[in-house]
Amino acid sequence: MPTIRDEYESAAQRARQESSSYERYLLDLTERERETRRSNRIERLLRESRLFMEKGLSTLDLKRLPPKAAQQVRSLLEGDFVERYENVLIFGNPGSGKTHVACAIGQELIRAGRKVMFATCGLMVQDLLAAKRDLKLRGFLKKISSYHVLILDDIGYIQYSREEMEVLFTLLAERYERGSVVLTSNLAFSGWETIFKDPMTTMAAIDRLVHHATILEFTNGSVRAPQAKGRQADQHSAPAIPFGSTPSAAPDGATDSVPPKGIAPKPRVLE
């Protein structure tokens, strides 16, 4: 118990100063140990999740989303869908904020004590294929099953071979009613036959996903474009440095390290 070991003396001194009872002293000390362990666990789960940490709730502008979708996101952040093994399916054009929302939900779920795994669909398929070739697919699926939520980003973004489609379908079938899947895609269900190659498999995959699911549709435009324009505007509005005034290159803030055109620099005298 590292926290108790490190803080029991200071906690005892404070307890004496405040005339706390011995029971209160022990309670405060054990609560600190518990909180430290909880904080360390959350940090570890965040690292292991592979989530984009910069795509969190603090940087998510819900006002840019359609009102219905924004309300759905607020509800999903509470995490109740995880206990019911429900899925979250997020559809929208590239740049509409799908990945950001998925990562923000994932981070908040971890802070609530749940295990989350994030992967692009393409990389997950490659991991599944590698496990299948090594005859370790069952073990890999068991490992994934230990996560309360699996986030698959950008399904349908690339074309899959039949072998890739088969391992992806196996993964979705294994998660059905056993663990939640948060999935993002810019491809509507009507185009999913290009993923699963035949109508029957496509219908079976969609049926498993939507049976217990919240579907978010991001009909807004790209959220990246305004951000890029903002950065360009900031660059254009930055004050220009006059020619011949480059403080960063001059010692002690001098402003004439680069002489104006037509004026020869004074020779430096070496001592």
Topology:
Layout lengths: L1 H16 L4 H28 L17 H10 L3 H4 L3 E6 L5 H14 L4 E5 H13 L3 H9 L3 E5 L8 H14 L4 E6 L7 H4 L2 H12 L2 E6 L5 H14 L34
Parallel strand pairs: 1-4, 1-5, 2-3, 3-4
Helix pairs in contact: 1-2, 6-7, 6-8
Describe the structure.
- The structure is a single chain.
- The protein has a five-stranded parallel β-sheet with strand order 2-3-4-1-5.
- It has eleven helices and five strands, in the order ααααβαβααβαβααβα.
- The protein has a domain at 57-219: Rossmann fold.
- α6 (121-133) packs across α8.
- With 271 residues, it is of the alpha/beta class.
- 23% of the residues are buried.
- The radius of gyration is 27 Å and the shape is globular.
- Helices cover 51% and strands 10% of the residues.
Alpha carbon gap, first and last residue: 63 Å
Oligomer: single chain
Radius of gyration (CA) equals: 27 Å
**What CATH architecture of the domain at 57-219 do you see?**
3-Layer(aba) Sandwich
Please describe the biggest sheet, giving its number of strands, its sense, and whether it closes into a barrel.
Answer: 5 strands, parallel
User: Helix amount, in percent?
Assistant: 40-55%
Q: What is the fold-level CATH name, i.e. the topology of the domain at 57-219?
A: Rossmann fold
Low-confidence residue ranges? 240-271
The helix/strand series, from N terminus to C terminus, equals HHHHEHEHHEHEHHEH
The total count of helices amounts to 11
The CATH class designation of the domain at 57-219 is Alpha Beta
- What is the CATH homology-level superfamily of the domain at 57-219? P-loop containing nucleotide triphosphate hydrolases
General shape: globular
Q: Give the strand line-up of the largest sheet.
A: 2-3-4-1-5
**Mean pLDDT level:** 82
β-strand percent reads 5-15%
- Number of E-type strands: 5
Overall structural class, as computed from helix and strand content, comes to: alpha/beta
